[in-house]
Amino acid sequence: MPQPMLVAAAAIINDKGQVLIARRPAGVDQAGLWELPGGKLAPYETGFQALKREIGEELGIEVLKARPLIRVRHSYSNKTVLLDVWKVLEFAGEPWGREGQPIRWVAVDDLVNYTFPAANKPIIKAVELPEEYLITGAFKDTQDALNRLNKALEQGVKLVQLRAHQLNAESYRELAQAFLGPCQSAGAKLMLNAAPELLNQVDADGIHLTAARLAQYDQRPVPVDKWLAASCHDAESITQAENIRADFITLSPVLKTPSHPKAQALGWHDFNNLTDNSKLPVYALGGMDKKQLDRIFGLGGQGLAGITQYWS
Ligand SMILES: Nc1nc2c([nH]c(=O)n2[C@H]2C[C@H](O)[C@@H](COP(=O)(O)OP(=O)(O)OP(=O)(O)O)O2)c(=O)[nH]1
Ligand SMILES: [Mg+2]
Predict the structure, then answer these.
(1) What ipTM is given for this predicted complex?
(2) pLDDT per residue over 130-182, tens digit each?
(3) How far is it, in rounded angstroms, from Cα 283 to Cα 230?
(4) Crossing angle, helix 235-243 and helix 267-277, to 10 degrees?
(5) Where would you tag: which of 1, 67, 143, 154 has the fewest CB atoms within 10 A of its CB?
């Protein structure tokens, strides 16, 4: 593999939740496309140092607080880049295009309407996705499931996977239908852990494939305007998820968990290796709680999945 060009880039979010994008000038690589501001690492710079310098040079603001968002390696015909993308949480000053480049604050949901370089597809997804992915646990009946869902939504959950393998297809469909309203009202996305065809009957936001379902496809089984996620456990399943153009994955079990006592845990080291080699946003799953979020970000993860504390 050729040595990639190292690039630091920033997802700068303002207090309205909008993201700052800039337009690449004519005559440079990827000319005319929109990008996240940033640029090449100078020799001996860390990603964060380069981020601070590039953002100062290009936008005239000072980055005060940032955390890793995603790292993506991508090969263009003429070069390979390794984009080290940070989420900027605090900055000083008012950004302007210091190099004459047009800049724009864009709502996260509008990012799909702008054309970015090919490497940015998973990066834009990482910007859109929240830090936590709720996977439903046990429940007594429909009302109990809805009560638990509403409690989780009240606590700010924005991404929900309805996982209920104990239900038959019809009961699952009914429950999925019942989940739609509360999720929509709370501005949360609903992923169905079910066959992709169910999207024809239930207008949820996407499908989450089990590892077994993931292995069955050789192309993306859901339309591009829906989300596709998959459960991965190793490098092979991650490659498979990338091949069928999934949008994000869960990787498990990171730590030992009572729900899957026989499964061998990956541990943090392997979690890091696998996320490093994955293009897609990766949620850590298995034995996770909110206290581990900073560690997950540092190791290349999008956030954590499971969060049984929201479902108890
Ligand atoms: N900044 C930025 N670069 C991106 C993005 N997506 C993407 O593929 N790239 C590629 C395009 C370029 O080949 C490379 C970044 O180089 P750059 O042109 O921003 O570098 P720079 O700011 O240091 O500029 P210069 O030294 O060439 O003046 O990474 C993105 O979202 N932001
Ligand atoms: Mg630049």
Answers:
(1) 0.95
(2) 999 999 999 999 999 999 999 999 999 999 999 999 999 999 999 999 999 99
(3) 10
(4) 30
(5) 1
d(CA 297, CA 60): 27
The angle subtended at Cα 9 by Cα 7 and Cα 10, nearest 5°, is: 165
Per the structure block, which two tokens stand in for 58?
């290009």
DSSP annotation string for 115-162: ---GGGHHHHHHHHS-SEEEE----SSHHHHHHHHHHHHHTT--EEEE
* Fold of the CATH domain 5-120: Nucleoside Triphosphate Pyrophosphohydrolase (3.90.79)
pLDDT digits (tens, 9 = 90+) for 87-113: 999 999 999 999 999 999 999 999 999
> What are 74's strand-pairing partners?
81
Write the single-letter amino acid at 139. F
Strand ranges in the chain using DSSP code E only, listed in sequence order: 5-12, 18-23, 34-35, 38-40, 62-75, 80-92, 103-107, 132-135, 159-162, 189-192, 206-209, 227-232, 248-251, 282-285, 303-306
Same topology, domains 5-120 and 132-310? Answer is no
Gap from CA of 37 to ligand 2 centroid (Å): 6
Tell me the backbone φ, ψ of residue 41, rounded to 5 degrees: -70, 135
Task: Name the pTM for this structure.
Answer: 0.95
d(CA 234, CA 271): 9
Q: How far is the CA of 251 from the centre of ligand 2 (A)?
A: 32
* Rounded distance between C-alpha atoms, residue 39 and residue 47, angstroms: 10
Pocket of ligand 1 (CB under 6 A): 7, 9, 28-30, 35-36, 38-40, 54, 81, 83, 117, 119-120
- C-alpha of residue 18 to centroid of ligand 1, in Å: 21
Neighbour count for residue 184 (Cβ, 10 Å): 14
Residue with tokens 């993201």: 19
* Token pair of 56 as six digits: 């100062």
Sequence spans of domains, the chain: 5-120, 132-310
Cα 189 to Cα 47, 146, 173, 203: the distances in Å are 32, 15, 17, 11
